[in-house]
Every structure is written in structure tokens, then in C-alpha cells.
Design goal:
By secondary structure, this protein is mainly alpha-helical. It has one domain. Helices cover 68% and strands 1% of the residues. It has 14 helices and 2 strands; from the N terminus they run E-E-H-H-H-H-H-H-H-H-H-H-H-H-H-H. It has a two-stranded antiparallel sheet with strand order 1-2. The longest helix is centred in the last third of the chain and has 35 residues, at 308-342.
Length: 422
């Protein structure tokens, strides 16, 4: 990973254009699908049937991209943290503080906003304290009617952040293995257990039941982030595989993604039960897209932009993506409330509503990022050490030099409860 200089002269990691593009593409797909469902389907301007329903359902893959990307970035960050610091307690503390300063303030801000929308009658459902501890969909479907429905994915991320260091510590406590083997064990645990659970549970009868009882349940979907951790492991300890034939791996990943799309169309248009009565639908709809992203990441993370404008745009959307995800749906509800109050005909103004909504999403997310999210996130620098995230550089950079020096690390771990090395 290359380093750039800040205005103060301090070196900081340069942005990775390819990863910004993946994040930006995923959030744009989320916006398009939610805008279509709320502004066109719910208003009766479009019917959610046939190929339209199948294409809309494929938008779920964009969330898988975000999960894998999160696991990849966080996994690489944890590998660097535990390698450089060594002490499990200190590394886990730094990791948790950095993630919680980054994610929780924005989450609780919009939790309050969504509760206010319910109070004003603009949103369905009702506030529950389970949202405060990210337990609304921990091992069970969320209560209906849905409140703050988009928060299910944020809860999954938060449980991943909590469990990853704990699983590493537990593995180190039980098994005296090399550091890389511990990460392999944790990644495979996160991948295999949820996947196996989905395969043995009674298959849902249709996509809405699958979405409610499988996809949105944290305990059944942690493998998405686990795939990202696996990518970080490959980037760190298997650089030969990571760097070799990136275009071929990217093509294989793209084919897996297209197979997932084809499977979704088959399930939606022909037979939702699919193969073996639907027991293995999730392999096509969750596992295949996740593995596809893993295969695409080596090529994508090494891809450079052709123009400065492309780099700037992807970086801005990447910066604002968390706030975009949190504010886009409340803004939709506010716009719908205003249109209903003014008694306007949606059919005659829908495209103006789309443009106004997108402009508001960009403006509000930028304002939230610069005035709230980033200032609070920056406070973590007082209490923790900055750790890079993203692919490991085995070139001539500072990070690459350290990576090469520790490439064949064979240190055994000590019990984490004793503050040993991990």
C-alpha cells in the first residue's frame, strides 16, 4: 500500500481506488433498488412481478459485496494490529474502540431519527431497545412491521466486529499455533458454521420468507464477512496466489456473480425451491457472490484510475457511503410524507422526486459526514493507534517491507488471557 503525505507532513495510507469503486457501486445499487421499490412499486407505477421482480431481487448481492469488503478491510486491519502490537488485549481494545468510534455514533443518531419518524407517523413499526444492542435480528427474524429495516446489515457488521477478536483470543487460548493458522481457523469458522446452518434448516417457501428468516438473521449470515477475512488472509500470507493471474481470477469471480444472477432469475421466475427442495439456494444466493468478490479483489485492489475525476468521485462516495446508507431511507419517507400532505399525484412528478431525493441524499450524507461522523471518528486518534486496512503490499513500501520481513512468521502464540502474542 502506497503512502501519501498529509498537510501536516505526516504520512498516511493512500486510498485504494478499486475498493472505493466496489463500495460506491454497491451503495448505488442499494439506492436504485430502494428508490424503485418505494417510489415506483409502492406507488403503483410499476408491478413487482416477472423479470422486474427478479432484477430487483438481484440487488441483494450488493449487500454481499459490502459485507465481503468490510471483512476484507477489517481482517487486514486486525492482522496488522496483532502482528505489530502482539498483545491480544491491547490489540483487541484498539480495534474495538476504533470501530465503535467509527460506526456507533452515526447508527445511534439515525436510530433516534427513525424513532422520530415513527412518532410522526411517517414510518411503520416501533422502537425497541433490542436495536440499541444490535439484537433485533441476532438469531431470529425482526419483529413486524419492520422498524429501521436497513439496520439489519449494520447489526451484522457490529457482531462481526465484536466476535472476530474474541474468536482469535479463544483460538489462541485453546490452540498453540502460528498466527496465520489462527486467522485461518477463525475465518473458516465464520464461513462454515452459518453456511451449514442454512443448509440444514427448513427451506423458506418464497423469497420474502428467505429474506426475513435467513438473509436478515445475523447468526445465519456471518459467513459474508468471513469470506472477507479469508481474502485478507490470502493477501497477507499467500501473496503469490494473490498476485498471480489477477485477470483470470476476476473473470472467474464475475462468472460466479453471473451464476448467482441466473440462479436468482430461475428461483424467482420458475421454481423458488430450486435444487434439493431449496436447501442449497443460499449457496447460489449468498456463498457464490461472496466467493466471487474474493476472486475479484486481487485485480480490483490493484486497479488504478484513469483520471483524477474518477478517483475523486469514488473517494467521495466511499467516504459518504455509511451516511448515505443511513439517511437515504428516512429521506424517502420524508418526501413521501410531504407529497401525501400536499396531495400531489406521484405519477406526474416521480422523476422530479427521484432527482430531488438523490440530491438530498448526497447533501445530507456529506453534511453528516463532515459535521458529525468524521469529527467524532477522529476522536479515536487520542486513544488508539492508526492501523492500515486493505491489501498487503509486498513491494518496496514501508508496509511491504514489514510484510516481507514477517512473511514466514512461525511464532507460537501465548494464552491471550496472559497478554501473550497473537
Amino acid at each position: 500500500m502506497q503512502l501519501s503525505h498529509s498537510a501536516s507532513g505526516q504520512r498516511k495510507p493512500a486510498r485504494n481506488f478499486g475498493l472505493d469503486v466496489l463500495r460506491s457501486l454497491a451503495i448505488c445499487v442499494v439506492l436504485m433498488n430502494h428508490g424503485y421499490l418505494v417510489l415506483f412499486v409502492d406507488s403503483g407505477l410499476s408491478q413487482w412481478t416477472g423479470w422486474r421482480a427478479a432484477a430487483s431481487a438481484c440487488a441483494v448481492f450488493s449487500i454481499e459485496w459490502l459485507f465481503v469488503l468490510s471483512g476484507f478491510l477489517i481482517g487486514s486491519m486486525m492482522i496488522r494490529s496483532f502482528e505489530s502490537r502482539g498483545n491480544w488485549r491491547a490489540s483487541a481494545r484498539d480495534f474495538w474502540l476504533r470501530r465503535w468510534f467509527r460506526t456507533m455514533p452515526n447508527y445511534y443518531l439515525f436510530l433516534v431519527i427513525n424513532a422520530a419518524l415513527v412518532w410522526w407517523g411517517l414510518e411503520e413499526g416501533h422502537f425497541s431497545w433490542s436495536f440499541a444492542v444490535f439484537a433485533q435480528n441476532l438469531a431470529w427474524p425482526q419483529e413486524k412491521p419492520l422498524f429501521f429495516s436497513e439496520a439489519w446489515s449494520l447489526a451484522l457488521d457490529e457482531w462481526f466486529y465484536l466476535l472476530m477478536p474474541l474468536l482469535l483470543g479463544l483460538a489462541a487460548l485453546i490452540l498453540r499455533l502460528e498466527r496465520r493458522h489462527l486467522f485461518w481457523i477463525v475465518a473458516l469458522t465464520l464461513i462454515v458454521l452459518p453456511t451449514a446452518l442454512r443448509c440444514v434448516l427448513t427451506p423458506p417457501a418464497h423469497i420474502f420468507a428467505w429474506d426475513e428468516h435467513i438473509r436478515r438473521v445475523t447468526a445465519l449470515h456471518l459467513d459474508a464477512t468471513g469470506w472477507g477475512v479469508l481474502a485478507a488472509i490470502l493477501s497477507r500470507w499467500h501473496p503469490g496466489w494473490w498476485r498471480s493471474h489477477p485477470h483470470r481470477k476476476a473473470l472467474a469471480g464475475l462468472l460466479l456473480m453471473l451464476c448467482a444472477v441466473a440462479a436468482m432469475f430461475y428461483f424467482m421466475l420458475i421454481n423458488w425451491r430450486g435444487f434439493a427442495g431449496g436447501h442449497f439456494n443460499d449457496l447460489a444466493l449468498i456463498s457464490a457472490p461472496a466467493l466471487g468478490v474474493v476472486l475479484i479483489l486481487p485485480w480490483l485492489s490493484a486497479h488504478a484510475p484513469s483520471t483524477g475525476a474518477a478517483r475523486w468521485l469514488s473517494a467521495r462516495i466511499g467516504d459518504y457511503s455509511y451516511s448515505i446508507y443511513l439517511c437515504h431511507y428516512p429521506l424517502l419517507l420524508l418526501l413521501l410524507g410531504a407529497i401525501k400532505w400536499l396531495d400531489w399525484n406521484m405519477g406526474s412528478i416521480v422523476w422530479w422526486v427521484v432527482l430531488i431525493w438523490l440530491a438530498l441524499v448526497l447533501a445530507v450524507s456529506a453534511a453528516v459526514f463532515h459535521s458529525f461522523e468524521k469529527p467524532i471518528s477522529d476522536l479515536r486518534e487520542r486513544f488508539t493507534r492508526r492501523v492500515q486496512a486493505g491489501p498487503f503490499d509486498t513491494g518496496l513500501g514501508t508496509d511491504g517491507a514489514r510484510d516481507m520481513m514477517t512473511k514466514n512468521n512461525t511464532h507460537k502464540v501465548e494464552l491471550p488471557s496472559l497478554g501473550g502474542n497473537l
